[in-house]
Amino acid sequence: MSAVSAPRRALTVPSVPRGYVQYLQTRLLEAEAGLTAMTDRYERTKARFDRCYARRGITPEADIVNYSNAKAMNPELKFWYAKVEHFQREVAAHGAVLTGLDAARRMLSDDGYRVPEYGRSRNSRRGLNRVS
Question: Which among 94, 108, 124, 120 is positioned nearest to 20, based on CA atoms?
Fold first, then answer.
């Protein structure tokens, strides 16, 4: 005796509100602009740091140990680099969300990507390991 299951509803493509996508796009653009600004600021600060320590003879080529120690102890370099990292994470996060939403939209809207609900193909080797 086989049980008859109720028919399944067709898959619907969930929609993402356009306002949310626009919000994410705006945030991505803001994060990219912030990343550019903070990278420029960090590079200017590091160039000033390098010039200052080069006058003392401390360069990566001449004295990497003292150069690395001085760089690690410089609070301004740490601050601007932390800002750069912050905006890198924001760009990555917003970009990943937008990429994921776009991929999901393409996958769900194209029937070629869907697993058919009815008439699924069965593994032809299904019963080979059973003992008769």
Answer: 94
